[in-house]
């Protein structure tokens, strides 16, 4: 028998009341009460669902969210229907969601449309109940109506949004000189809904690289270093043919690059380059870099040798002795990291595709792997079912609860489940059923 959940609003209160009643219970003769098994602390697990726009899997029909307790998320007899019963998150296209570390708050900045750039936060109350809290603020005047933003790992205090604009420059004879890349970086006080800092900078590559037509064309995924005094921002490079100033699509992929800024001032930008990984470090819609054991570990994409996980040490430089190649670790070709998230033990769940992925209705088939950052190992999680239409390119969220990581699995337009991976043991638990609708898909847990 499946339990269909519509409203979990009062579950935490019920759990607390039950615990108090049990702990205060005693027999009539004043004897010692029987021992009580400890009650595991629950947290909310919010599932995000992306509705189809015009094409299956495009996610452009809007984003809906629905929350259940961690106990129910682990229960395969529970069934939830976010597309029919979920809360519609304000956003013209797929929302860019973030959550507090304990899962009690959802943060959103609307992406594109009339509300693009509006920051709102919601208290999670179970089911489709999300109550807006605090004031709304627009960051569009600073970073546009379709900002790329992320929550920094500083105790849910700060978010950071970024953009880059480019302009080709020519000399008096109309010869191409270089491409000017102007970066904007904003930090946002998540608690008080106010702008902390905003700065714009010209971001230059080396003179040799710029003369060949290379420039930074997209930036994303800011992350703080261990000391909290530097902000790292991932970057994507593009290139023009300097003879014609036309886009060049067949060029040598340079070493992966990251922009480094002073924090919190957002001043003194510089660019660091990896000699281990090549390709982009800006990611897509999921956080692409994480702090672990005093270093920042960063995924790259579009690497001709397959995606790497790169390491930036406390000296704010790439550690080029750390060579973690996903092709080698997984035994595949052209591994491409779509999204990932480590637990505090340095073991991570990673979503990826590769050259052997089937072509599904919305793109290449995706898989999950269990990764060990210290041992530099990766293994596909075979206990999760895969389908050619299991599409992870737009995946955004993983819930980390201790050493457990929660993910969603469902092919485009088909039902699936929540799965919970114990990163210490590798054990996988099939959880609640996710009811899908035609052409739509799930983009993670928060």
UniProtKB/TrEMBL annotation:
Signal found in the keyword field = yes
Signal peptide limits: 1-24
Which organism was this protein described from? Answer: Flagellimonas okinawensis
Q: Which UniProt keywords apply?
A: Signal
This protein is called DUF4374 domain-containing protein
